[in-house]
User: Fold this.
Amino acid sequence: MSDVGIVRGCKIPKDLYYSVDDHTWVRLNDDGTVTVGMTDVAQNLAGPVLHAKVKKVGLTRAKGKPIGTVESAKWVGPIKTPVSGEIVAVNEKLADDPQLLNRDPYGEGWVVKMKPTNWDEEVQELQTGEEAVQKYQEKVEREDIKACEHVE
Amino acid sequence: MEDLEGKKILVIQTHGVDTPTRTYSPVYYAIAAAAMEMDVMIWFTMNGTNQLRKGEAEKIELKPGSGVTLKTLLDQALDAGVKLSVCQQSMDLWDMKPEDLIDGVKILGATSIIDLALEADHVMYF
Assistant:
């Protein structure tokens, strides 16, 4: 993985795009699709994930709509897509092993792949690189979010 | 999960601070339904009403030492778009006035709950 920022022990890879307020990341793939997942900060806030339900391939979602739901012992909520588009693949492994979201949020714990429909415009509202790390730093300080613990 | 968007769920909670272990799950289910894009309302009545008195829900901790209280969940529910409503008649039972309620709760009468039950796709009661 390329350069990784650290915010209170949470990893923020600088090559990804982030919707910091929704705790999601986006990776632009070579074929024009994007991979979407939840951040290290999000998995830490949720705690060990007990169930993850992901929407189905073929569904079109507007930015901000849920692409799935995540439940832990103390939290249940939506994963909101940071970009509009059609879901072209879902991570089937999450059904059997939802704690992939905790162990490898930027890798094996990806949630969906989408064909974005408004990327050029929507990417402007996402943060990447040092700017993303800075914005996350401000958020965890403002909301006093606890330091990351990594489940192995 | 695709057909659930916009479905209406009505959760009726009749348990309150005197039975803490019966207070969490109904709120948790409501938050889950909201996360699944459903239109969700919790109706607090009978003993359920007393958890809405300012300062009460903070005293009920999900698991000792967890730091997660019933108030945490009620706040999460409001953030998730769950509507909280309370039975006007039951407030009188607990000597509660509108200003005693936590923020974000709507006071409704008995006829409203009958309408809401008929309009809902599903009613869950606890």
Chain A has five helices and twelve strands. Chain A has one domain: 4-142. Residues 129-142 of chain A form the longest helix (14 residues).
